[in-house]
Every structure is written in C-alpha cells, then in structure tokens.
Amino acid sequence: MVKLIARWFLLAAALLLTAHFYPGIHVQGYGAALVAALILGLLNTVLRPVLVVLTLPVTIITLGLFLFVVNAMIFYCAAWMLPGLQVAGFGAALVASLLYSVCGMVIDAVLERVFDES
C-alpha cells in the first residue's frame, strides 16, 4: 500500500515536472496534479485496454507506433475531464504523454529497487 501511495505522489510530481519543462500543458497546482495522476491511472487501467483492442489492426500496421496516439488520447481525455489540467492541443498531449511515460518508467524502476531492498 505504501508503494502505491508513493507511486501516486511521485507521478503527480512527474506531471508537474512535465508541465514545467513543456509549455504545451499547464497544471494549476499539486492538488490538481494529484487528481490528474489518479484520473490518468484510472483511464490507463480501464479505457486504454479497450482502445488498444479496438485499434489493434492500425497498431499492427504501424508496428506499434499507434500506441503513442492511444496514450495521447488518454492524456487528452484526462485534460478534458479535469479543469486543473490544460493541454494546448493533440500534439501537446502527445509530447506530454511521452514525457510523463518516461518519468513513470523511471519512478517504477526506482520504486522497485527501493521496495525490493526492504
């Protein structure tokens, strides 16, 4: 449970970091980032598998590159749902989702290492 809460807080910080380095998105504060990280996690858990299955032929044709578009759609949908997260457009959602995903991978690797040692 501690790992899950730590991951949530770190992903919210990663969202703020992404907004700081990329001007195409804006997060109103850490509270909005916490809610946005939660919504992004829920959308990735519920909606992303459905979109991946529905877009499987296009994903196969593009050799998996269409999954970047699926991630951007999830990010854009979260921004549409939340007033504290603004995205300038679909291109901004694509870049922001890439940056956020890289941060998420680093966070997961660090948390695995930290919680495996204890």
Describe, in plain words, how this protein is organized in 3D.
It contains 5 helices and 2 strands, in the order H-E-H-H-H-E-H. With 118 residues, the protein is mainly alpha-helical. Helix 1 (2-21) packs across helix 2 and helix 4 crosses helix 5. The chain has helices at residues 2-21, 30-54, 56-61, 66-81, 90-117; strands spanning 25-27, 85-87. It is globular and about 45 Å long. The longest helix is centred in the last third of the chain and has 28 residues, at 90-117.
List keywords for this structure.
single chain; mainly alpha; two-stranded antiparallel sheet; globular
Oligomer: single chain
Main pleated-sheet profile: 2 strands, antiparallel
Q: What are the segments in which pLDDT stays under 50 over at least 5 consecutive residues?
A: none
The helix-and-strand class reads mainly alpha
| Mean residue pLDDT | 94
Count of alpha/pi helices: 5
**Amino- and carboxy-terminal Cα gap:** 14 Å
- What form results from the Cα inertia axes? globular
In total, the number of strands is 2
Query: Rg, please?
Result: 15 Å
Arrangement of strands in the largest sheet:
1-2
Question: Which percent bin holds the helix content?
Answer: over 70%
